[in-house]
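Good day; I would like, with your permission, to put a structural problem before you. I would ask you to consider whether the tokens describe a fold that such a sequence might reasonably adopt. The full record is reproduced below for your convenience:
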Amino acid sequence: MVSFLLLQRMTMMTARFKHLYHGGLIGPQDKSIEHIIPKRLFVNRHDAEDPMNKAFCDPYTNSMRSDFRFGDISRVCSPDLILPTHDDYRPLYDKKGNFTGLISRSRRVFYPSFTCDYRHLSSSILHMLYHYPYLYSYMDQIVCEPGLLHTWTIRETLSLKYMMDL
């Protein structure tokens, strides 16, 4: 029994987790559990703990994102030049220097990086909306544009189709 617990602990110490916002791998000491839809929007706090509402990211990005809504980064900068086009935007990086996104404190918007797992992000939000319909009344606090989930889903579908055609 002791050897099983030791093996399980050693496995967890060396495990790697996919970072939601930059797509790279992070270790267990560098991970934080991000609630995709903020807990404060749920009527029942237990609903916020739905596994589809959780993803891994670094603690700094999780803290800085706070409960900001999501925005489309392609509207504020280009993939070639990650510097924001306005002083209001602040770039976020994890401890290893990977770009995770931009935040705009005045607009209360978080713009995930270009390498974000948008498929996971949009499917999680859609799953939560399907199972907890009252969240529709908070859509303006989840995403800053009504068509953003549609845009992300199409972008990821076309990207996947392109990769399959190669």
Observations:
- The CA atoms of residues 5 and 11 lie 10 Å apart.
- The chain has one domain: 17-165.
- Residues 17-165 form one domain.
- Confidence is low (pLDDT under 50) at residues 4-8.
